[in-house]
Amino acid sequence: MISLTFTLKQIAVNKIDCSRLTPNGLAGLSLSQIENLSLLNTKNSPKVSDYFEVSGNNNEHIIFKNSSEQLDFIGQKMSHGSIVCQGDVGDRVGDQMRRGLILIDGNAGDYCGSRVLAGTIGVHGSPGKYVGFGMKRGTLLLLKAPNLHATMQDCGTHNLPFLRLLLKSFKSFNSKFSTLTSTRVQRYCGDIANNGTGEILVFKN
Amino acid sequence: MRLMQINGITIDDTFAEAFNMRGTRVIITALNLKWAYHAANAMTGFATSVIGCGVEAGIERELTADETPDGRPGVSVLLFAMGSKVLMQQLETRMGQCILTCPTAAAFAGIASEDMINLGAHLRYFGDGFQTSKLINGTRYWRIPVMDGEFLVQETTGMVRAIGGGNFLILAISQAAALNAAETAIEAMKKLPNVIMPFPGGVVRSGSKVGSKYPKMFASTNDAFCPTLKGLVQTELSDDIESVMEIVIDGLTFDDIAKAMKVGIEAICALGENSGVKRISAGNYGGKLGPHHFKLHEVLK
User: Cα separation of B59 and B79, whole Å?
Assistant: First the structure.
């Protein structure tokens, strides 16, 4: 099984809504069905093949190659599987995600991990504004300190034992996260604006 | 009766009678081996016999950092009970009181099975709402905030069909000789996987028979092997036997126990007849209670 791979054809001028390109949204679809899939629920919606070259057959593990800040809503509402983005991504990565894993090698746009219910999102580059906005549970892994809004609470620096297992599981992914080993992180919790106990873990050297 | 002698020590033509049990394995890790042992010793404490302890448990072996899920040193622990319900109850209370409480300790499933039982699934409520779970490669773990940091525990572990009550008896001319032989056997048997010897130091001196003169007692002292009763009861002991000790073995499979019995008995026989050991025998209830019979002569083949 080869990971389902979406290669962005060129840097798009407009934003692309990727909310359908999740393991949930693509379950059971063949390669040609995926290529002809409408990205939006509108009459003149662009198709997947208008922007992406698609290959692979494992819809449970998705790779975005050549990804850019134009790609919004990656992994929205996903509840299983994994998405690896080899490049930057746009706004609202993992919005309302329930389970699964999203790893981003580049930068993320605004509202990264917004309204996350559970699951794991890793951003190797810099995240935008309002990281973890409305987060309920789940884990955001960051390497660069984010600009957090007031309702994300600093819980101090710790060595978290579960990170050994989590980082070990990343080794099978073709991602910059596969080489991480440190388990020492600054832990921020929230979003307490909606009683959230999600966490943003920022790796320390 | 066939006669079998190894190095001058007689091996009785008898068998050990063993029972079906339910077993599980738990891997306990900690910051270092010292604290992994503290946790494991607590968890396997007061677990010599199902008669009074609920489970029979022991440390199976040490694990290096490469062998454990979280890359820390650890030990593997085996627990056996007469039924799945008791095993689940005992595992839960022992996890809660001995592993959750032990500084730096973490616990993981040590055996795969179709029957999965709770390891940390209920312990999570100790987190009072601050507990979080992580699904990593399809396995669920719980992270429970505690005063030393975070307690990490796998949600479930496997439960398997196992066998308990494999045993052999060491008949010697003195207490010191029997104890020395028992210690030698345990040292050799501890190196084997998939078995534990649940009694203190692996050795039991109060072997039992079924029934008693007192109606409420299910089991009582095995008078036929008690050296001080030689003249009173139908004894199994000759004049020169002054002390008998037993080694009981619980294991995951018949072959595991048979191997352990063989290794233990051979270690004793290697000591020779000058060790004071005269005979090796085994405990059974006439063969009607337990479905598994370990015939000494066949085990030693």
Answer: 9
Cα dihedral sign for B96, B97, B99, B101? positive
Minimal-distance CA residue of chain A relative to B146: A160
B71 touches chain A (CB under 8 A): yes
Q: Is B128 in CB contact (< 8 Å) with chain A? A: no
For B215-225, write each residue's pLDDT tens digit: 999 889 999 99
Distance of CA B78 to the CA centre of its chain: 7
CA distances, A167 to each of A1, A6, B91, B181, B201 (Å):
23, 25, 29, 48, 40
A166 and B CB contact within 8 Å: yes
Tens digits of per-residue pLDDT, B245-288?
999 999 999 999 999 999 999 999 999 999 999 999 999 988 88
**B210 confidence band (pLDDT: 50, 70, 90):** confident
Average pLDDT over residues B187-201: 97
Structure tokens at A154: 């600093």
**CA within 13 Å, CB half, A122:** 24
Question: What is the structure's pLDDT at B286?
Answer: 85
Hey, CA dihedral for A48, A54, A57, A63, is it positive or negative? negative
What letters, b where the CB count within 10 A reaches 16 and e where it falls short, cover A158-193?
bebbbbbbbbbbbeebebbbeebeebebbbbbbbee
Q: Which pLDDT value is given to residue B1?
A: 58
Return phi, psi of residue A93, to 5°. -65, 130
pLDDT of the residue at B3: 81
Please state the ipTM of this predicted complex.
0.94
Using a CB–CB cutoff of 8 Å, tell me whether A1 touches chain B.
Answer: no
Cross-chain Cβ contact B141/A139 below 8 Å:
no
Whether this model's pTM surpasses 0.90: yes
Say whether A165 and B136 touch across the interface (CB within 8 A). yes
Listed by number, the residues of chain B in 146-165 with a beta carbon closer than 8 Å to a beta carbon of chain A are 149-150, 152
Q: Does the distance separating the beta carbons of A162 and B150 come in below 8 Å?
A: yes
Q: Would you say residue B2 has pLDDT above 80?
A: no
User: How far is the first Cα of chain B from the last one, in angstroms, to the nearest whole number?
Assistant: 17
Helical spans, DSSP H, in A10-127: 23-26, 31-35, 48-51
Query: Is B35 within 8 Å of chain A by CB?
Result: no
Mutation for testing the B interface, residue in A165, A170, A178, A181 having most B CBs under 10 Å: A165
Q: Which residues of B touch A167 (CB under 8 A)?
A: none
Q: Does A159 touch chain B (CB under 8 A)?
A: yes
